[in-house]
Amino acid sequence: MSNKDFRVCHGKLYSYLETKDYGAIVFGCPPGIVKEFLRLKKPLPSKYIISSETFCDNLNNFDFEFIVYSYLFTRTPGSVVYAYCLPEQEKRFRNILNETLFGPRFDQLIESQSNKLLNEKCLNTQDKKNLRIFLRQNFAKNKTISILFDNLLQEHSSQPIISKELQKFIEEKLLSKKKNILNVGIKNLPQKLTKIYQQCAQLQKELDFFSLAKEKDRDSFISKIVKFYHMEKSNSVLINGLKNKRKKLKIQEVEPRIFKVFEGKVQRCTVNLNNIASKDKKNKPKQIQIPFFGVTFIGVGSGFSSNKENSSAIIWSEGKGILIDVVANNNSILLNYGINKKDVNHVFLTHVHSDHDAGVLENLLDKRKTYVLTSRIIYESFLRKSQALTSLSKIFIEKYVKFIEVTPNKKIKIPGFKNTFFEFDYSLHSIPSGRCKITYVKGEVTKSIAHSGDTKYDISKINAWYKKGTFTQARKNGILGFIWDSDLIIHDVGGGNLHTYYESLLHLSDKIKRKIFLVHQHGKPHPKSQLRYATDGETIALIK
Predict the structure, then answer these.
(1) Domain range for residue 115?
(2) What is the pTM of this model?
(3) How far apart are CA 33 and CA 496, in angstroms?
């Protein structure tokens, strides 16, 4: 084999090696790598070499999510992706994929939702420990209460009746046997536990619509999609030939991010990730006029749309911006629009898929303080994922990520704003995800902008799920409502199993349809569309 059979090509924060006998091998996993191969019109390779140092210039080179999604959703069933990495990196990958493919376990949902309960002033250290054990073992894992909740939903019981029956069970069957929990001094403990259980159980039912595997089968599911091979003590791995398994390619990391490639004793090439330019091309700034209250679309695409930035928007109010999700290279994008990043310190994090949270991680690594609005459940999912990605401590992360907790259907004034309010609710997605309404109110002036987040809005499916007994009537009405009374509505139109199809929105009234701007676009806009597709960089002013 000649050296011409080993061709090293370079992309943004990654390199790939084209070989005749071993296929294509990628070095590095930056965000957006799937889009890069789509733009190149090349098939996404199946082999990935992970460096011992996974960050370069504070940019993530450990983003394996969309590679896995690509193999799950766009390849033939049974397709496998290979990761060559350190043993501890495999553990981190598994933790990340558990979080992004499946979402939190049910006991994690319960514990997150019980945060205020666990921090009641009346609890001492031992009380907290006992309560946490009770929540994990006796509460979250109780099959009888789970069956009771399912039966009540299938009977289409009202929310008050469900609450009454759950509270009765909690008092008579759980707390009566745990006097140490009942007697710690928490006021209205049965009512609080009932509310926590109902919220988490309902969310879990919705996540189950999209579940790829049962909770006990998550790890084995990952093992079927991703085959992990560990770097040996010499920091090397062997790759078998595609046709001739006796042929071996040895890849050795001789220095962090520098690899030598051997066939037998012959060195074929060197791959140096340190020499790859990590900065975006500087475009001429497209200066936007910042409205007093309005929106700028930073990106309108999906994680698989090659020619568009991932979905993100800035809601402007009182001269300051609230980002709806933060895409990779966000700071460069803001600069290209002439936006001072100091004017955009607040983020509504809808969920923890990398096409939505990559920029938050970059801000963290850049030690830039970010105020994150989201639910406790989504925030703690973000913490677990960030720790797995970076190996940073929770204390370090929370030094720069300032959490502002929001709860469903409770309007709050956004800290740092005088007259701007935020309202949250969960959307329908594969992991806990949020939607929001942001409202400016002063005197007789009231204007609002809503964002659907990633969601499966499909009225026929939602009604069918309700008939099967998966929602209360109140929750079904909430899913089908919430955002439509806003003055401007930003809506997901990604299609597929996890997102809304364009056609699913056409039943809405003309009055509502005129207010909708479509984002998370996958594919080309519909010809003669009845709905408006947002464009990258577009700014809409509701109050100039």
Answers:
(1) 106-208
(2) 0.96
(3) 21
